[in-house]
Amino acid sequence: MLWMLLLAGCWEPTETSSVGMAGRVLDHTGFPITDVEVVSLEGRSITNSDGHFAVEYQAPDTYVSFDIGASTFRRNYQPADEGQVIDVQISRLHEVSIACNTACSGRAQWDLGGGLTVRAALSCEPGARSALVGVPTGIPELLCRDSDAELSANGDNWTIRAPSRHIEVRAADSESCRVSIGSIVATRVQDLAAEARVVYMGSASGDVAIKGVCDGIPVIPVQAAADVVSVEIVPNTGQTWELGVEGLEAVDVYGLPDVGDSWSLRLQPTGTTLTTPVLPAGHYAILGPDALPMDPASLRAQMSEQAPGELVRQDEGRQATWRVRIVE
Question: Under CATH, what is the fold of the domain 165-233?
């Protein structure tokens, strides 16, 4: 008789079994959620004032699902459910802001235990920001269809980025080098006496700048693309510039070398002087703490008539800007 009712589409289970689920949808406090559409491949039910639903299903698809906010909840039948009216209690939901450092089209997925899983679709383009309203707390598993990516969470803020990789940094042997890979300080792991090299290791995601200070002298940063796992930095004797301004706790140095990638460094002057790496041919700007931002595209044009090697200052005090053009 049961199979005839199933074929007629008019049967509603009164308890959970391998052919249907009866239960209640509850919020994270245990309060019933009304007017939620609970579905299977064979049927649907709208929760009443008690959060109650009853939906039939057939093997192998013995589960029900429903949407709340950006989340799709799925409750799978388990043998321990037999003969029970199931309480499907969802987790606390919140809104997250997503910063996209790499592309990902796919979903975030949570396993809440007890046969309950959650999915939320997302699409992420590099440099863009997006949001999801109504997803569980906690860090989900990230599944991207066409790319590899990692998700990190800090409260209500997510970051999607390329997978982390280990980067080896080699530097000429010196008494003291401090090497950073992005914002992370690298670890000195090996001394290669035969090559007069020291090896540092660290992790990074995506494109990253490798910076270092060796024996108190900054080195020119190296830009490492997302597929680079080994780079070399070159310590040097440095060169000193007379800024003529006292009391500057830090300045930003922007470099547009004629060969290679552009770079930036934050350095600390000593009195009125500043020590930089030995600068190769190119165009360079030094910005005081309160100087207006520098437009790299216009830097070369501003110095087209400037004498090579001459450090020219514009404005005074903390708003000062210095420019210099280096030729071979």
Answer: Immunoglobulin-like (2.60.40)
SS3 for the chain, per residue? CHHHHHHHCCCCCCCCECCEEEEEEECCCCCECCCCEEECCCCEEECCCCCEEEEECECCECEEEEEECCEEEEEECCHHHCCCCEEEECCCEEEEEEEECCCEEEEEEEEEECCEEEEEEEEECCCCEEEEEEEECCCCEEEECCCCCEEEEECCEEEEECCEEEEEEEEECCCCEEEEECCEECEEEEEEHHHCEEEEEEEEECCEEEEEEECCEECCCEEECCCCCEEEECCCCCEEEECCCCCCCCEEEEEEECCCCCEEEEECCECCEEEECCCCCEEEEEECCCCCCCCHHHHHHHCCCCCCCCCEEECCHHHCEEEEEECC
2-89 homologous superfamily: Carboxypeptidase-like, regulatory domain (2.60.40.1120)
Look up the pTM and report it.
0.64
Ordered per-residue pLDDT tens for the chain, 328 residues: 444 444 444 578 999 999 999 999 999 999 999 999 999 999 999 999 999 999 999 999 999 999 999 999 999 999 999 999 999 999 999 999 999 988 999 999 999 999 999 999 999 998 899 999 999 999 999 999 988 889 989 999 999 988 888 888 988 766 678 899 988 899 988 887 666 778 889 888 778 899 998 888 899 999 888 778 888 888 888 899 999 998 899 999 999 999 888 899 999 999 999 999 999 999 999 999 999 887 777 777 878 788 899 999 988 889 999 999 999 7
